[in-house]
Amino acid sequence: MKYVITLLLLLTIGGCSAILESAQQLPDLSDGTAEIIDDSLEKEETIMENQDAVQGLVDICGCSERTAQSLCTTLERAISDQISQVEDVPNEFYRILKVTSNSGDVFFAKMMKGYFISRVYADSMDGEVVYTAIR
Beta strand 106-112 with 129-132: parallel, antiparallel or unpaired? Predict the structure, then answer.
C-alpha cells in the first residue's frame, strides 16, 4: 500500500512540474501597469456591419438585440453572405423571414418558437434547402 501511495505522489509531483514547465511566461508588470487584452473589437465590427439587419430582426420578431444578432449570424452563415434586407412573410403556422443577401439572392427562413431557425430555402419555400438545423 505504501508503494501505491508513493507512486501516486511521484506521479502527481511529476505532473505538476510538467504543467509548470509548459506554462507561458507572463510579462513583467512590476512597474504597476496592467495589460488588458480586449478581443471584443472584432465582435463589435461584426455587429456594426449588419446593424440594419439586426434592427430589422428586432422589429419583426420583437426580440432583444442580442437574440437578433444571433439570428443574423445564423442566417448569414446559412446564406454565405451578408444580409441586406429582412422581411416578414405572413404564415398561419410559423414565422417566415424573407432574407435578401448583399448579392441580391433571396432566401426564405422558417423560424419556430423560441427564435429557432429550422430551415433556410433558396429562391422560394419550395426551393433548395441551404440550411437545416439539427436539434
Answer: unpaired
Mean pLDDT of 15-37: 53
- Coil/strand/helix, residue 36: coil
Q: At what angle do helices 51-61 and 65-79 cross, to 10 degrees?
A: 120
DSSP code for 100: E
Phi, psi of 108 (to 5 degrees): -125, 125
Question: How would residue 80 be classed by pLDDT, with cut points 50, 70 and 90?
Answer: very high
What does the alpha-carbon distance between residue 81 and residue 102 come to, in Å, rounded to a whole number? 7
| C-alpha grid cell, residue 105 | 439572392
Mean of the per-residue pLDDT values of the chain: 79
Could you tell me where the DSSP H helices lie in 1-135?
2-22, 40-49, 51-61, 65-79
